[in-house]
Amino acid sequence: MPEDKAVTQPSVRELRRGIRAGETSALESVERSLAAIDALDAGLHSFIWVDRDAARAEARRVDAELAAGRDLPLAGVTVGVKDNIDVGGRVTQAGSRVLAGRVPTEDATVVARLRAAGAVVVGSTNMHEFALGGTSENPHFGTVNNPLGAGLSPGGSSGGSAAAVAAGLTMVALGTDTCGSIRMPASLTGTVGMRPTAWTVPLHGVVPLALSMDTAGPMTRTIGDNVEILQVLSGRTLRRPRAARVRLLTHRLDDVANAVRETMAEVVDNLRGRVRLDRDADTGWVPESVDVAVTTFLREAADLHEVWLRERPDEYGADVRGSLEQGTLISRDDYLNAAARRFELAHRARRGLGPDGILVLPVFPFTRVTQYTDTVETAPGSFEDRDAAMLRYISAAAVTGLPALSVPGGHDPDGLPIGVQLIGAPGTEAELYGLARLIVAGNALDDAHDGEDVS
Fold it and tell me: Active-site residue numbers?
């Protein structure tokens, strides 16, 4: 689907103003999303199911509550929910045949919080099976296509959520991030994705992959919308960013695409005078996190799937089954050694960041993932294993439990987005959003809805 065919959705604040002024309604917002899905999703495969009747009924209920004087800050905001996050009364199966027919009796906490604020769930978004992969090539529900170009992967595992938001099918979406599954598709689709500080967003009702690394978070078109959704998911209002100037940590970039290197240099250059550059801080924990991440999530995933993998192996897609089988080969000692390394790496990361540091990294060393291929071009003429290259920069936050935000920072010569990743100390989401706004403004990217500070 060409990018210029994407549907323009209002921001959360624009919709709220329109509803309060009597210019629109929750039902009109839902109808806009349903029409967009009908027009575009056959070519994207971003949804597994869409419940039109339930969405319309929910929108009418929201409009009735507004008419009765209730304040609903997300009234009419349309949401796509990743298929590993429970929607009560509807099949939620983590993109897998293994969980076919699984119908939870209640919403996941994050879904319940969005609905309590007036948001409307329109459907369940497609994903890489069991969130164990970075392409969203799903053998059961179809491969998710990137709305930015034919043959391009949107990344994963939250690829359906990213594609739905990028194409304007919904205003926002929910994703999960065990080891990059929000940030990776956000980068490849030019959207905004937040992996929040570990344990700050409740995971009740989320199908687990690796319990010690799993998180859930928002995927949106703009930074402002991301702030709005995270506040509801976490149940807390983000404080204003600290007044002190941010100390910006940089990391040496080896074997990256020219466009990635140029984008990162431009981002840092545009921030001069607004941040204190620190090129000497220890960032060795970034590359050292990769092996620890792989050992941890593969072993934890294999443990969770032990019975199903033994009794129903043919119900898994081949790639996911292979990853789980690889996880069964990881010894207890190797897993415990990785756990000890995680503690050490988290300590080093927090010491290096301190209270005022933010590390700026690319999400990827490349700018595109072509569907059904297992290599990517990093340095010019240099091709690497796709999965290994994907993990290079996104593992660090997953291993250390730190908040990490992916925001569009520039484009490659073909116009494809390049995601910039910001990693901060625990609880510094407000600072990450504040710095992201400077990056977006400095690169003249379209984020017109984001002029207000976090409050």
Answer: 82, 157, 181
